[in-house]
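check this:
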Amino acid sequence: MRWLTSLALIVPAITACTLGAGLYWVDHKDFASLAAQRIAHATGRSVEIHHLHVRAGLWLTADLEGLSIANIPGGSRPQMITLDTLHAQIRLTTLLHGPVQSRDVIITGFSGIFERTPERQPNWRFAPADAQPGPTNTDKPENDAPDTHWFPGIRDVRILKSDVTYRSAGGSSYDARLDNMHLSSQSDTSPLLMTLAGAYNGTPVAIDTTMASIAMLRLSPRPYEAKAKITSGDLEIGFDGTLTDVLNVDGIKGHITVKTPTSRPLLDLAGLKDFQDTVPMEINGNFSHLQDSWHLEQTSGQIKGTVIKDATFDLEEGNHTKPDDIHANISLGALDVNSMLAGLSQPKGKKPTGRAAHTDIPLQVPLKPDPLLNIRLSATQVTYNDLSMSGLALNAEQAPGKIVVHELSLGYLGTTIRAQGSLKAARDGTDIDAQFDARHGDIDRLRKAAGFAPIPVKGKLGIQVIASARNAHTLNEATRKADLSAAVSMEQGEIAREIVEAASMDLRLIFRRPKGTVPITCLLGVMELHQGIGTVAPLRIRTSIGIVAAKASFDLNRHWFDLVFASRPFSTGFFALDIPVRVKGPFDSPQLSLAALSKQGKALLAESNTVTTLPPALRSFASGNACLRPTR
């Protein structure tokens, strides 16, 4: 609506110059030069008008052709405003004791660009040519609402084949095409109606607005009531609220609703024309806009079946070429990432194929992001591929060249996983560094999720992991390429007595089969993993009837492992042979055999008894575990 200010300046200036010329030769005089001088003096800008003719009467009739008003220095184009033709009728008496009353106004070929320079100077602020520069009033806001007591009465105005562009200080452009815009009112005290058919950034848009009277508009900055309905294809946006600065579309407060069964028009308006998926959406909330701040609160609704329980969004426009800054706090119900991201990476014109197991999250870290993001996200449940998790809490921040995850926690298989880390832009992808831990994870639930056959150990595990991946492009690729170090501990649990005696090769197994379990005093395992291939060394289990030491290698890509374990001689009874045992094969059907009495067995016993060296970040995790200390 800023362009209305410019139009409002043009009409009074044109009509005022006609009075000074006299009515005798009005019908034959071209007032282009005189009007251009008056407008130039009032605005402090260079102005050109090709033709301006006025016909006298109770209603003065003005016809103008070829108007241009210069832009400010540093603007993106030489002319701020150009106009092909203007036809208007002005009540003669209102020129003497305004506000001016107009009717039968037809504007064709209006083109206006409203922008801020990189120094944030707005080009829609005009000053008379002879105005003396003075000290800057720092107490007055830059976007203080302009005086609107002079705003002309509008009975019937049509704007045809026109366009308006707004450019932010950061260079972002927002283009509106006005194919047919109509403003009308019965009187200055009746509602002002506006309809518009046009386009925004190339996407067709229609607007139907009912506003308070022009008399109320002249009382700015008193809140000015307005109701608007915006439609584009299957998209409907509703607004019901007030403005304190109508001409600058500022000081907005009101309730906003957004509804679309496909989101196709909304994606087009946002410039995401290649996104192929259907995204049903219904959102409502309280919206406000003041100067450089945009705010949306008490937001609820649903996006593609995901319920938005509550959300708050704050956007601060960047200053002096700085990017915009967005802070968001979003609370969701069940979040199905598979459904939400379906079609995200599909080529244009190709429908998504396959099941949810192929869902992948792109890892893109822009070097110069605009806007900057600070996100707090929570969800009651999260589904990603075949994983089902609960209690998601995420606190992440996007900065130039990196994304920092300050906190990530979620529930999985009865345990709570907490993580933190960062993603950094790399020459060929994204570098990831993360640290996470899980406490009180049930070992039987974890082995089922990993696809292992049943194991004779029960209890709760604690796990701490340091992970990194280099030059990854997606989340799934990062998990395949990850290098990690991990420590696994258990301080309360039990193991089958038969396993401990089998590990020690107790001769009594020939005559009996032991039953029951024995408590685990402690368990500690140290794992190293490189792109899915790893080792566990050492792995120690201490019980009251013996200490078991083990070493393992595994391949997550093939679901295959090789484990060698044996008891420590000093910890077992008289009948124990303490011969290493080997378990090898697929996760779900391994084979058991005796490990040869050779270098492998001797190496196992030596390695299992050495002092365990942990990365610094894992030392505090295992420092209180009795199995950390070597056995004698």
Remarks:
- The longest helix spans residues 2-21.
- The chain has ten helices and 31 strands.
